[in-house]
Amino acid sequence: MVKAMKQRYRWGDESLTLKELYQVAKPDFGRKQILASLLVELEPGLSCKIVFVKHRHKKREWLAILSTDVALSEEEIVRMYGMRWDIETFFKACKSMLKLGKEFQGRSYDMMIAHTTIVFTRYVMLTWESRQNMDPRTIGGIFYLVCDEVKDRDWLTALSELWAIVEPILLGVVLNMKQVQRQLQDWIATLPSYIKGHLSLVTCES
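Predicted structure:
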């Protein structure tokens, strides 16, 4: 990500600041995230692509992302920057709050590896604890209740259950037909909606 400072970029025959490039790019505010992009030169022979995106928290402001790989699409540049930003926030948290590089001082390579490992382990544990307490996907059984549709029975399971009800009748075993009817009704009631849609008998109330 680049900031609007005194740095100038070569666009055609002009040398423009980042704010001036933004005006030249004619941003399209109708787009969801990416406003515009331009191909410029940092110096002769060094081409780059600048992508202007909406500021997530300040609607009237914009951010600029620079990539020296001009073959990448606007969307790919934004996606890759998003991945790298997670890494940046990880290191900032480790340095600012978990004392990476400050808690111990020494020249031993093994000591530095051990210290870094301890700090990263702290981060993993704190992140896991935060997710357990804050992530709605881990609150009791709510996640599984919401995902009931994912666990719907398939056709093979449903037919196996139906066969278990019908088989005694076909074998000539004397059964209470009212009990069989009740079992069929219970079986139909517990079927996933996509199977019920294929069975005309579910519309029958008898």
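Summary: Helices lie at 18-24, 74-96, 109-134, 142-146, 155-170, 177-189, 193-196.
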